[in-house]
Amino acid sequence: MASVDELRARGNTAFKAADYPHAIEAYTAALALAEPAHPDCAKILGNRAFCHLKIGESGDEATREAVLPLCIADCDAALLADPTFDKAIFRRLRANVLLGRREAGVEDATAFLERHPGHAETSQLGLGLGMYTVNGKLPEEGHVPVVLGQTVSFCTLLSQGYWERRHGVGRHDHLTQSAGLVFPGLGL
Q1: 11/8 Cα distance (integer angstroms)
Q2: 126 Cα distance to chain centroid
Q3: Could you give the percent of the chain with pLDDT greater than 90?
């Protein structure tokens, strides 16, 4: 009979090969053997959640509706086992976004950004959730994004190409003018 660590390793191997159903099977078997206080329970749950997320991201709407709630449940369980396991918050955020659960997504993005300010992908997901507003207006209307009273780095948004995609331009001087920003000495 395989041990928890062996089953987890099998799951990791299957995950790396993008064989998510077999990875889920191995992680589930590892969790069935693990004691609740096993030090890797949160990681195993997080890995299984990530498998569900990967299947949901590449699947059709029916697949997303079937597997993403499993991702969310595994993330919830992982956070109960280890409240500091931030990957679970981020994976749950992605699942909530894919399911169109704006309120839950905003809660997760807020929690993650409190622990990891400026995290690029979370900031990008927050844009999709409409988190960044000034007086109720979204950034594409020419306002600097704000989250929970903190200004999000405009330079980060420029480097991610967000403004270029939204405004169809490639020159930063136009972007800074439209947002009412001046960056002396940077040629912007």
Answers
A1: 5
A2: 9
A3: 48
d(CA 107, CA 98): 15
In the block, which residue shows the tokens 């900031």? 123
Instruction: Give the 3-state secondary structure of the chain.
Output: CCCHHHHHHHHHHHHHCCCHHHHHHHHHHHHHHCCCCCCCHHHHHHHHHHHHHHHHHHCCHHHHHHHHHHHHHHHHHHHHHCCCCHHHHHHHHHHHHHCCCHHHHHHHHHHHHHHCCCCHHHHHHHHHHCCCCECCECHHHCCCCEECCEECCHHHHHHCCHHHHHHCCCCHHHHHHHHCCCCCCCCC
**pLDDT tens-digit profile of 94-144?**
999 999 898 898 888 888 888 887 777 776 777 666 665 434 444 443 333
Gap between the Cα atoms of 168 and 185, Å rounded: 25
Whether 149 has a pLDDT exceeding 90, the answer reads no
Nearest to 109 by CA among 151, 95, 45, 14: 95
Global confidence as pTM: 0.69
**pLDDT tens across 162-186, in order?**
434 444 444 333 333 333 333 333 3
